[in-house]
Structure prediction request, 270 residues.
Amino acid sequence: MKVNFKSSNFSDYLKPSQIVFNLKSNDKVQSLNELLDILLEQKIIKNKELVLTRIINREKLESTAIGHGVALPHARVNTGNDIAVVVGRSKEGIDFDAIDKKKVHLVILMVWNPSLPGLFNHLFAGLAQYLRNEEFREKLFKAKDKSELYSYLSEIVLSISPQDKIISRANLIKKLQEIEISKKKATPEQREKLDKEAKLIRGELDAAILDRFDKLMEKYGYAVAEVVDGVCRGCNINVATGISSSIEGSNDIYICENCGKFLVAPKKED
Prediction:
């Protein structure tokens, strides 16, 4: 499926035949297997085991269940196609190690070509906008059949996010920073493991984000700064009005206009 970053609908990437209305499994790995079987049967992917391994490795880093009963498992793999999407619905729910501890009832699995920087950002931006809406989620969960579910999913419009924020997994950027710092004091054995984790994370991020991250790490020793009480802890200067509230609870990464570091919300105390 060729990609138009400027404007597209989710239905441009998803056919009714790529929807499993009633997933049989309530196990994470088995449900992923079930969904990938659909892509394999339709010859959208060729190497199912490779894709499954990449997705499972990604899940080990951090669950892709974003809360509210939704999961977005994904992998950047050269499958011969630009993008592959399959959707599964589970009435009983699947334990996906979600951040809110709730079972997942809708799984949107995506595989995309490594040669297409920005594709996951494009997809995630559009999906997140709709999936954060409780009324829209309820329509998906309560769809009567595959046709109705596809109709609702077809309402999703994908669009590029504004330039002042980069759609990405904020926790992944923070984790990459932790790994890079840990590598400085790690043993050769520990460093090998950390390198593998870092490679997985870097595989999900676009070149522009990684280039900024690496330059900031080289210059300052860290690239991510928390925003506390409206102040960037990287430069101790107030950030633009509204950013603090926008960052809270968001999965987006914002950039400090003063020091250029990635801005994230502070970690909540348990």
The longest strand covers residues 83-94.
